[in-house]
Design a protein that fits this description.
alpha/beta, Rossmann fold, six-stranded parallel β-sheet, 22% strand, Isochorismatase-like_dom, Isochorismatase-like_sf, Maleamate amidohydrolase, hydrolase activity, Isochorismatase-like_hydrls
Length: 186
């Protein structure tokens, strides 16, 4: 039996779709999170902290319920689903493919983290009011302590990002500055 005292870093949707200006899901502020995420990723890797890459991917040629709300996007194998240069998984870093906003919904994320003795998650990426919030809420529901690093997430709707961070702090976890995120991973 493993104690659940360890921390993991979860990168949510650090894929080309949100950061490549040629992609329709890219928004101007997205790139601002890359330097803080790189700092956190370096700290996690230096300390041997588990790094998980949660990425939205949908199956080609199969209908997806999400298409009722959003245009077809993030099709497996497309350039849009490729990792942003410099943020590719290293050997041993799991990739969790998600078909909804949350990295926990209909994936083995909770099982994998529980089996690794993880109790606390530093969650970063895009978009605060959608995939980050959904992942944080489900992390909390699955018994994890979620921490969101303020500088390492944003949205194309800043007012919703701020409201989401307020809700995360109040109901689900903590919102911390970059310095505290680095300390949590060291």
């Amino acid at each position: 039996m493993t104690s659940r005292s360890r921390t993991a870093l979860v990168l949510v949707d650090v894929i080309n779709s949100f950061f490549d200006p040629e992609e329709p899901n890219c928004y101007p502020a997205a790139g601002q999170v890359l330097a803080p995420i790189a700092t956190l990723l370096a700290a996690a890797r230096a300390s041997g902290t588990l790094v998980v890459h949660a990425v939205e991917r949908h199956r080609p040629d199969l209908h997806d319920f999400e298409w009722g709300k959003l245009p077809v996007h993030h099709i497996e194998g497309s350039d849009a689903c490729g990792f942003v240069a410099g943020f590719e998984p290293l050997p041993g870093e799991p990739v969790v493919a998600k078909r909804r906003y949350s990295a926990f919904f209909a994936t083995d994320m909770a099982l994998m983290l529980h089996e690794q003795g993880i109790g606390r998650l530093v969650i970063v990426g895009v978009k605060t009011n959608c995939c980050i919030r959904a992942t944080v809420q489900d992390a909390f529901a699955n018994g994890f302590e979620p921490i969101v690093v303020r500088e390492a997430t944003n949205s194309n709707r800043p007012h919703l990002a701020e409201a989401s961070l307020e809700d995360i702090e109040r109901y689900f976890g903590r919102v911390v500055p970059l310095e505290d995120g680095v300390m949590a991973l060291s």
